[in-house]
Write a structure and sequence with these properties.
By secondary structure, the chain is an alpha+beta fold. It has eight helices and 15 strands. It has helices spanning 24-28, 46-59, 68-81, 124-129, 156-167, 211-222, 234-238, 270-284, and strands at residues 4-7, 10-13, 31-39, 42-43, 87-94, 111-117, 131-135, 173-176, 182-185, 189-194, 197-200, 227-229, 242-247, 251-258, 261-262. The strands form two sheets. Strands 7, 8, 9, 10, 11, 12, 13, 14 and 15 form a nine-stranded mixed β-sheet that branches. The relative contact order is 0.13. The structure holds 3-[O-phosphonopyridoxyl]--amino-benzoic acid. 3-[O-phosphonopyridoxyl]--amino-benzoic acid binds next to helix 6 and strand 13.
Amino acid sequence: MPRIIFMNDRLVPEDQAKVSVFDHGLLYGDGVFEGLRSYSGKVFRLEAHIDRLYASARAICLEIPLAKEVVSKAVNDTLAANGLSDGYVRLVITRGAGSLGLDPNKTSHPQVIVIADTISLYPREFYEKGLRIVTASTQRTQSAALSPRIKSLNYLNNIMAKLEGLRAGCVEALMLNHKGEVAECTGDNVFVVRDGRLLTPPPDAGILEGITRNAVMELATAAGIDCREVTLVRHDLYTADECFLTGTAAEVIPVVDIDGRTIGSGMPGPVTRRLTDAFHELVRR
Ligand code: PXG
């Protein structure tokens, strides 16, 4: 069955959903995006995703030609048009078609695209037994070069790190910032548990402030687990009691091995399990 795509102002079959070869999203990665998830017909933290999308766009001086409410409705309409109540949504805004030069002022209309599909999660086994990850030698882009808080269409930095992970037989890779501090993984935020306390790198470590990350921090606080944003280095991960990742696609996923070192007991730990359960309860509520 062909999927139904939202393009700018209407729903069209996927074979009619096309962008120009002159689109600066294609030519330069000039655009922004979001990945959202719907559970039982309700989009998880839609407003937060829409706010982050508009903030990313604003940061690159891209004016989204539709109001937030219209884009939010397009997300729901696209899910409905594809008969999806549990699905994944990719919202893409490109700079639009322009000339072959970089000048964004020579582009015409930003393209607003909403794609809804099912989500292929990591195999269940990874959730039960935990992931193995490696540290990538590719550093996370410095904020002074391009803020990692912008969810831009230019993901080459993360893709280079992802390639390193895949070559080492891992589905995720840890990225450090230019100071050698832990930033995040290629598409997930990172947490550790030490002495019953939850620790995660602060935004200025050069991370995308994940919506799942924020939800997990709230859940931890509500469960009486002390949660702090602190600078972490690899030593903190290697010696942690537990480690896990968070992301819209991955949700909460345990990590049991980093760079060939066993983390904690080598099995998903109790705090990770508790927060995983709390997260599942939250999204299904
Ligand atoms: N860091 C980065 C760099 C991300 O791209 C997250 C953290 C988690 O954020 P949320 O808001 O989802 O909790 C992301 C998520 C993928 C994939 O295939 C992941 C993301 C985007 C596109 C694809 O894993 N972003």
